[in-house]
Structure formats: C-alpha cells, structure tokens
Amino acid sequence: GQQQSGVAEPEEIDEGAVLVAQVEDLKTTKRLRTTVNDREIVIFHHLGKYHALDLRCYHAGGPLHLGEIEDIDGRTCVICPWHKYKIVLENGEGLYQGVDPRDPKKSKKWFSKGVKQRTHKVSVKNGGVYVTLSDPSNMCDSDFYANEKFNDQPCPD
Ligand code: FES
Asked: Lower Cβ count inside 10 Å, N or C end of the chain?
C-alpha cells in the first residue's frame, strides 16, 4: 500500500483559502500550475511537503512550473528553466554562488539575495490542497510578473 505522509494533516483552513487540487492528484503529478484569485501560482509536492510560489520567476518572468528541483547547499530549490536562477522552495529566497573576498582560499559559496519570489501558504484538509495567498502589502520582486498583463503572455506548458 501507499505510505501515509500525514504531513500538515489535519489542519484548519484559513478563510481566504482556495481549493486547488486533491492530495492524491498532486502526489502523482508533483506539481501544478494554477490560478488563485487571478494570480498565477505553482504548487510543488516535494519530499512530503507542499510549496506554493508565484508562477513566474522574479528575474524575467520564467515559468517555474517547468523548473528542476535540486538541493543547493542543503536547501531545496527550484531552478528557473530560463536563466537557471535558484529559488528556495520554502521561502522564495534567491541564491547565488560567489566568492567571499575575505576568503583567502577564494572558494565558491552560496549566498542569499533575500526573499525574491513570493510564497503562499498551503494547507491540507479532507484530501484537498488549499492555497492562501500571502499578504500583498509586503512587496516582493516576483509581484512585477504576477498580474494579468503577463497572464495573457505565452508561458510554455
Ligand atoms: Fe528565471 Fe531568468 S527568468 S532565471
């Protein structure tokens, strides 16, 4: 039989939460491109956890639902297919690799640019996956691409 993940279940659902998928479906597809209150988002199901982010990459609007998922320096990231930016699934931080000028060995390390991609809350209840959009008053770089102007532009499936 299938193993029961039990992650984040059961949970209370926020008032503004929107049902986006069934747990069983998302466990199979591992990712879903959808729209919540006119905002395009992507939901990943990875290693038993759910993550919702703005669909279009904060850099230039790339389609994150087509990105590979990789472990970068111990953090689970989606790699944007357009220019390979690394975005932490958990909180939308942008990571980049560089050399600390103070490091005498000049070895490359991963650094954070801070939160760049907006993430949204995912809840699970009675076999349904729900998304609550995050508070829009805290500006985030990915907001630029998260409006109807870009909704109409082709984004490869
Ligand atoms: Fe995502 Fe450039 S659009 S890396």
From this structure: N
